[in-house]
Every structure is written in structure tokens, then in C-alpha cells.
């Protein structure tokens, strides 16, 4: 009786794995012909990635997609999950909550994934990750850094250190560069959960360091004109500007601050943490300080491999969002191996795999490109390596790079 109960879901999930591979894969990873009679079908294990491939949020999501693709190739070359390949299925969350809800529903009910990496933004996670939690599908935020993400539910965690841990590093670096900083102008996007959370951390840190917050200016992530806010702030003559927003808005704000004559240091938050900001603020991006949860110079074998794989394609060092997405897939692969070590995946139903995978994710310790990480029982990442980078633009403002100022 028990056997039958296990067997039917097993057959269903194997059939599903096969279908998913057939529908989504250009390379027939999971369709191993049994015509020779040597091998039974070994279907690839479907892992979902709910990431932004369209809208302005794709400026961030694009780097995450690159990370999951590199991870898929890398971990499959290493034997996948005890010999069974993984297949990463990407669904576009686009720029808003509904996009994330749709992508996550599709991954769960249509693609029958064992787990999900995503969504791209905290704003999307608060709306969409509860769906994965209710369906008992493990979901890891690749860069969901707002306060409260792991607390969404038992099945929700993140591989992205929270703003509370990462953001203060940038302020400390700014003070090292210019110890005379006293007056600080703070800007944040009031329609974005991450930006609201990050500005709280920034403001608490500034206060704890006895710096004066001379103005707090609000905007929307959809805004393109910041003349009013920028002018109001510049009139108070701040020594430092701290911005929590996303790429397009954040980049335009930086550009307009500079055009209006602001010459002091600028700290950008995690939403500005991509070279996709270069075309937005061009030469005026120069000098922006951004705290980092990843440093390409980390010297461990997996990071050396990751940097080599990324650099071969992209001719530059990998960015944080790519590294975090790569790490998310690694966590799934290693935790799946441990599930399989205990009970062969082929003997488990999809529901059992998802549930046991969640336990193993939380129980594991991982040597990653982000350094050594683990999770609290709530799904919060435990990570100890952070850095701060500064954007250096070429004179023509076309190209630039993130240079690390603090290790
Ligand atoms: C969040 C973030 C974004 C800036 C990541 C792309 O950190 O939404 O939490």
C-alpha cells in the first residue's frame, strides 16, 4: 500500500522531469535513449529561476540569469546531483509583483520544479514568495536584501546578505575616504520595499556615527526627473549623498546631482550595483561607492572556476548579482545530493523531494564564491565576507569598472 502511494507520484514526477526537459531544453540532457538497453531514462532535475528578463528590472535580472546559466553548466560538468543533471528553467518575473506571481506559479504547477531561485526584487518576493511557501517549494532569494524576507515562511530563504549587514560598510568606507563628512543627504525610492529597508539601515548607521542627516528626499523607481529633489538637497550643501533606489532611477539621480553641481561623495545602494548603470549616468557614475556581498578576488577553488567561466564569456570580473545567483544553484545542487544520499531521489515523490530539500538546504554548510556560508533555521544567510567597490569610469564615460577599495 505504502509502496503504491510512493510509486505513483514517483512515476508522475519522472514523467514530468522528462516532459520539462523535452519542452525546455535545447540539449537533450534528460532524454537518454534506452534503445540500446543499457540505460533507463535519466531525466534532468528541474530547478526554477524566477528572474527579470524584461523591464527596467532586467538591468539587474540579466546578471542573475547569467549566474544560473553558468551554474547549470558548471555543476552538470561536475556530475550534477550524484550523476543526474540539473535543468534550470528560467521564467521572467519582469518588473512588478504580478510578473513574479505568474512566474512562480508557472514554475510550481507547470514546470514542476523542485525549488526556485528568485524573484529578482524584495518588492516581488513579499508578494510572490508566499506562494512558493504555501506550496511547500523551497525558494531562495538571489538578491532579496530587505528586512523580513526569510520570515515570510518556512520554505523561504536567501543567499543574499541583508541590507542591515551589507549597507553600513559603504558608509564606513566613505568616512575613511573623507573623515570630514558631517552633513548627509539621503534619497530613497518610496515605492520599493528593498529601497525603504536599505534607507532605514543607512539612516540608522549615519545616526550611530553621529553624522547629520540634513535632508531625506523621496522618489519613485519610475521617475526620470529628479531636479526638485536634487536641487533641494544641494542647497543644504551636503558632504555625502546616499541613494537607495534601482538602476535606472538611481543612475539618473546621480547624473542630475552631478549636472546640478554636486561634487561630494555618493554612496549607491544595492539597486545601483551593476555595470548596467554605466549607460545611465555615464561619466557621472564615476566615484559611486557601493558595498558588496561578493569579491571576485576571493581565493578559493570554486571562485577561481567561477571567475574563469564568467570572464571567458564576458571579458570582465563577475558582478555580485551573478555570483549570488550562481551560489543559489550551488546550494540547491549540494542539498539535493544530500537528499539523494539519504533516499534516492527516484524513490521520492516531488512533494517529498521539495520538503526534504528544504531541510537539507537549511542544514548545510557551503563553500561558495561568496565565501563560506550557512543558514539560520529561518533561512537567513550566515556570511562574513563583505567589501566595498568604487565605480571608475573611463574619460569618455562609455566604459567603467568596479574597483575594490576595502576587503
Ligand atoms: C532587493 C535588492 C535589489 C536591488 C536586487 C536586484 O537587493 O530588491 O532586495
What small molecules are bound in this structure?
(3S)-3-methyl-2-oxopentanoic acid
Q: What is the multimeric organization of the chains shown? A: single chain
Number of strands: 15
Number of helices: 13
Succession of helices and strands: HEHEHEHEEHHEHEHEHEHEHHHEEEEE
* Proportion of residues in helical segments: 40-55%
Spatial strand sequence of the major β-sheet: 2-1-3-4-5
SS content category: alpha/beta
Spatial gap, N to C terminus: 58 Å
Q: List low-confidence stretches.
A: 1-41
The global form is: elongated
Alpha carbon gyration radius? 22 Å
Sheet having the most strands:
5 strands, parallel
Overall average residue pLDDT:
92
| Residue fraction in strands | 15-25%
Plain-language structure description:
The chain has 407 residues and is of the alpha/beta class. The protein contains 13 helices and 15 strands. It has helices at 2-24, 58-77, 97-110, 122-134, 163-166, 168-177, 193-208, 227-235, 247-259, 278-281, 301-314, 320-342, 350-363, and strands spanning 45-51, 86-92, 116-117, 139-141, 156-158, 183-189, 212-219, 240-244, 265-268, 289-292, 365-368, 371-375, 381-382, 387-393, 400-406. Helix 12 crosses helix 13 (350-363). The protein is elongated and about 70 Å long. The N and C termini lie far apart (58 Å). Mean pLDDT is 92; it is low at 1-41. The structure holds (3S)-3-methyl-2-oxopentanoic acid. (3S)-3-methyl-2-oxopentanoic acid is lined by residues 60, 120-122, 143-146, 194, 270-271. The site of (3S)-3-methyl-2-oxopentanoic acid has 11 residues, from loops.
